[in-house]
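G., the chain you wanted modeled:
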Amino acid sequence: MVRVSQIGSTKIVGVLALQGAFNSHERALGEIDVTTQEIRTPQDLASIDALVMPGGESTTMSQLLESSELFEPIKKLIQEGMPVFGTCAGMILLATKIIDGRDDQVSFGAIDIDVQRNAYGRQIDSFETEIEVESFDEPFHAVFIRAPRIVRAGRDVEVLATNGPEIVFAKQKNVLVASFHPELSFDNRIHKMFVKEI
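Predicted structure as tokens:
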């Protein structure tokens, strides 16, 4: 278990709180002394400097983003350069293309990747493993739960970590994505990396 010192911040990181594991992201960010704001309505976006999109069920999250009228305001903020970090289902929602998504499922098209949902299998097939992350001097303990797979990455996408041949952590401009759950590893280095982008 790796801890880093608190980094302090006057910035506010929004955590999409419609569905999924948003509480764990709030805990992880709190451990590095970052103020968070739960995002449930368009009005909640007014005070934030960055956004975390957590794991959960991507189809349900897609529907809730539209019914809460959050989809278009978030899309606009991402296009304007606001840093955003999507984990698991959050990564699916940020992708350019969802290989096996439903016809009515929307995504932000914010990072040039194609993803396959639940690519590693069902809940029973979840696993944990050590991965080497670019710029980290020690491996990161990654937790994969019904994880999506990046099946294509554009040439402007920076690969930050792989699990064997699979890309599991990547970045393009202001968008960071992970197919695993860093908020469940009790290692806050990835959250610190994201906050440094603000």
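Helices lie at 22-31, 58-67, 71-79, 89-94, 189-196.

Shout if anything looks off.
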